[in-house]
Amino acid sequence: MKLVLASASPRRKELLAQLSFLSATENKPFSFDILAADIDESHQKGETAANFVVRLAKEKAIAGLGLYCGTDKAVVLGSDTIVVLGDTILGKPVDEADAKLMLQSLAGKAHKVMTAVAVTDGEQTLTKLITTDVQFCAMSEADILAYIATGEPMDKAGAYGIQGLGGSFVEAIDGSYSAVVGLPLVETRALLCEMNIF
Ligand SMILES: Cc1cn([C@H]2C[C@H](O)[C@@H](COP(=O)(O)OP(=O)(O)OP(=O)(O)O)O2)c(=O)[nH]c1=O
């Protein structure tokens, strides 16, 4: 059985590699292939944030299985992360002005980070949704501009990375740190166990 990560995210690659060292069935880390599954990530009218993020994770896994060309049977993992502030869903900023608006809206407030993981082998598709509460400290305009100037916000949901410089603005977190970074370790490991990867 081949494990395939359907993701272009370097964070997801690192987190899955971390899990691979805990493989109980063999005395060596399991290997996995990586491919980028490009899907339409637009939100559908009326769709809840939870349904949206789970749907995207599933679509990435299923699209990844369609792209996989190997001869072994594959289990493909897809994941998606969004930031939810009240009724507003924040994905990745489209440009710096968008990043500024996102950070201004998050500053001094609490929001939720939702990460969904899906694994599929073509016969069964399993999903998990993890929601984490994150409290941001107040940010001045200068803080926001300085942070955007580092470039870090641009490829991240909500325009920040808790694992990087953005961690300086995170006052408190209640939930899964790895899920905020992009791949919840405990739940992903459980899904991979269910698919007999561990
Ligand atoms: C909130 C937050 C998000 N992120 C990242 C995780 C995801 O990579 C990204 C959200 O975008 P996603 O669309 O979930 O993922 P992606 O486009 O980077 O990768 P792929 O779809 O190919 O798997 O934001 C952080 O790295 N740190 C954080 O603190």
TrEMBL record:
Chief place of localization: cytoplasm
Cofactor needs: a divalent metal cation
Reaction(s) the record says it catalyses: UTP + H2O = UMP + diphosphate + H(+); dTTP + H2O = dTMP + diphosphate + H(+)
Listed name of the protein: dTTP/UTP pyrophosphatase
EC numbers on record: 3.6.1.9
Active site: 80
PANTHER family for this protein: BIFUNCTIONAL DTTP/UTP PYROPHOSPHATASE/METHYLTRANSFERASE PROTEIN-RELATED, BIFUNCTIONAL DTTP_UTP PYROPHOSPHATASE_METHYLTRANSFERASE PROTEIN-RELATED
